[in-house]
Amino acid sequence: MSTVYDCNRPDDREAGLAAAANTVRAGGLVVLPTDTVYGIGADAFDSDAVGSLLSAKGRGRDMPVPVLVGSWSTIDGLVQSVSRQARSLVEAFWPGGLSLVLPQAPSLAWDLGDTRGTVNLRMPLHPVALDLLREVGPMAVSSANRTGHPPASAAEQAREQLGESVGVYLDGGPAGEPVASTIVDLTQPQPRVLREGAVTLAELSEVLGVEVEPAA
């Protein structure tokens, strides 16, 4: 049975984070607030849990799950190499609304879907999300909604769509105006913006010192 924890109350927040961490370690699913929209998350290294996440959303392997991290340094163990461009963007915009697509480390034993050897990484700017990520490590996290339905900007909206497929709901209050993260592909020498969102093309260009354009 699902449990909802009000993370705006200190006692509930502590209990909720402990329950969420235990659920993730046991291969279950949790809903957590982020700085964009609510997310549904699982242990990134538990392929069965990631499969359950995709099933709960009604989503196929052709739409692989992004990974959220709790610190800058975490990415060093997840990607083949951290380029100067990637490091500059991390330092400028993490935690925040920027997702980076990078070649994943070949040694990683995970299955996030059909990623073609890449991983989509982000560090969210939300204290509840960061506390959980620092406790359990990298999590596969997608928007907390059924595929084809609007993303959830509140825990109750997520629960209405995902129900008992999720073990723990961490309620951090309304997410505000939902703004998707900007996604930058750094798998090629020239950065490509796959989706413009919270971080603008002008901001990216200023940090990188080159003109950044959306992918064709």
Automatic annotation (TrEMBL):
Domain of life per record: Bacteria
GO molecular function terms noted in the UniProt entry: ATP binding; double-stranded RNA binding; L-threonylcarbamoyladenylate synthase; tRNA binding
Catalytic activity: L-threonine + hydrogencarbonate + ATP = L-threonylcarbamoyladenylate + diphosphate + H2O
Key words, A-Z: ATP-binding, Cytoplasm, Nucleotide-binding, Nucleotidyltransferase, Transferase, tRNA processing
Intracellular or extracellular location(s): Cytoplasm
Domain YrdC-like: 14-199
Record-listed E.C. numbers: 2.7.7.87
GO biological process, one term: tRNA processing
Keyword Hydrolase: no
GO cellular component: cytoplasm
PANTHER family: SUA5, THREONYLCARBAMOYL-AMP SYNTHASE
NCBIfam families in UniProt: L-threonylcarbamoyladenylate synthase
Family: Belongs to the SUA5 family.
Name the UniProt record assigns to this protein: L-threonylcarbamoyladenylate synthase
Organism: Saccharopolyspora gloriosae
Taxonomic lineage: Bacteria, Bacillati, Actinomycetota, Actinomycetes, Pseudonocardiales
